[in-house]
Amino acid sequence: MSHDLHRRLGRLAADMDGTDLMGLRARVERRSRQLRNRRAIAAAAAALAGLAVLLAGGAVLLPRPDRAAPPLPATSATTTAPSTAAPPSAAPSGTPSATGHAQAPGTLYYLTLSPGQPIRLVAYTGGTSQTTGFGTATSKDVYARPSPDGTRLVVNTSPDHDRIAPGDLVVVSPGGARHTIAHDVRWDGGLTAVWTPDGKAVIADGVRYDAATGAHAPASGSLPYVVYSPDGSVRAYTSDTPSAVRVEQAGNGPRTVSVTGLAECEHAGCPTSVQSVSDDGRYLALGDVNSDPSHVFRTAVVFDTLAGRRVELGHLEHVWFRAGGALVDSGAQLTLYDNDWKVLRTYPRPAGEDEKTRLFYAP
């Protein structure tokens, strides 16, 4: 551009008389240098302004010598669900929140019993787990149940499983020491042995046995699927009356509760295998009716004995009542409810359950 300007000025100067061409050339060159300097200054100023903007907007991304860079978030194969907890000033939310490492209140017992294999009882309580060995299961062992404190097992045995032959009632201590407290005891269906709430006695086929001495006395009837409420004040079991459950409550006398209104009674049979009962005797956790000798361990429905209808809780695996509410196992998670069936919290299920491993609960 400057060379072209020089040529034009040169031609113009040739046509002009009395013009100092050397002075004109010098002025042109000075003007050209001034323009170049201005452009350089302007470009430098623009660059500095852009750098300032970047530094101001990205300051949080630059490490400071006096402050360590924030750690990168850890990656995990486990996905944590978004928290649904309400802010402190808001009303409590009805949506439960699960905590990956929290455990449900009370104690969950996983009891593994398989002939010829070690008998193991894994107790999950207070955020920890503890495994206790009870020796090796014999070929005669049929069913076992832990005491409320998890320190002993009561085992039903049979000399012939195929013929459902009655067998011994045995109390087993940690390490495997066995103490037989009764012989010729039935174990079929709902007659498997159950501990009393204080852990001092066992009910089996309608007989109460002292767990230490074997001393026994009738316990009023065969008492199939007998259970006790958490505080021990209520006892419930399958009634001799078809499609009914017997509830015995201290101070109120026994009553027979019909469950014929349940939808299950219309096609398969009424659930009457009692799994648990609430302290006030109002609610029953019931399993499916069973005509074969195997024992029903799972809950199919929660029945409100006062309203005469089921409590809608979705899919159920187990329901255990406790003081102030219930703990419900859906198979995927555990949900803690209050007395009005409002969700208080959910918890992960510690482990799975199969035919060799049974799940029990102590509030």
UniProtKB/TrEMBL annotation:
Going by the entry's taxonomy, the superkingdom of the source organism is recorded as Bacteria
What Gene3D superfamilies does its record include?
TolB, C-terminal domain
**Region Disordered: start and end of each range?**
70-101
Keyword entries, A-Z = Membrane, Transmembrane, Transmembrane helix
Question: Biased-composition ranges for Low complexity?
Answer: 74-99
Q: Which InterPro entries match?
A: 6-blade_b-propeller_TolB-like, Quino_amine_DH_bsu
Per the UniProt record, which residue ranges are transmembrane? Answer: 40-62
This protein's name: WD40 repeat domain-containing protein
